[in-house]
Amino acid sequence: MKKLCRSFGFAFCGLVSAVKNERNFRTHLVAMATVIYFSAVYGIEKWEAVCLSAMIALVLAAELFNTAIEAVVDIASPEKNPLARIAKDSAAGAVLVFAIASVAVAVFVFSESQGWKRVFEYIKENYGYVTAFAALGTGFIFFRTKEKKQ
Predict the structure, then answer these.
(1) Cα separation, 28 vs 112, whole angstroms
(2) What does the alpha-carbon distance between residue 81 and residue 72 come to, in Å, rounded to a whole number?
(3) What is the distance between the alpha carbons of residues 46 and 53, in angstroms, rounded to a whole number?
(4) What end-to-end distance do the CA atoms of the chain give, in Å?
(5) What phi and psi values does residue 55 have, to the nearest 5 degrees?
(6) What percent of the chain shows pLDDT beyond 90?
């Protein structure tokens, strides 16, 4: 049981590190929060929520894998190497594939339930709240912490 708790602790540390150090991870978190908020406000169906949740999880997991691959490549090949570049670019490409797929799923979900129309109506009626959320989200994305390099 102690080993299991430790492994969850390591996983949590990995998530915290991604939030602190990876701007793209924070960008995906803000997108996730936006999708979850509008999904709740406009009452999507359960199967739509499952699809959106799965896509969110896949994008975040892909971003974590990308971060891990980049770190391993940096350790294995500190100098410039065309193969290291291919590894890093391929990992980033995988994240892009998942992100594009998640946008496609969101478009499908919200277009089926008249969601986009309601989203724009909500923004028009509550532009102050939306502006505050956008400002906070932007600040969160570009938030940086100082972490010691090892």
Answers:
(1) 23
(2) 14
(3) 10
(4) 30
(5) -65, -40
(6) 52
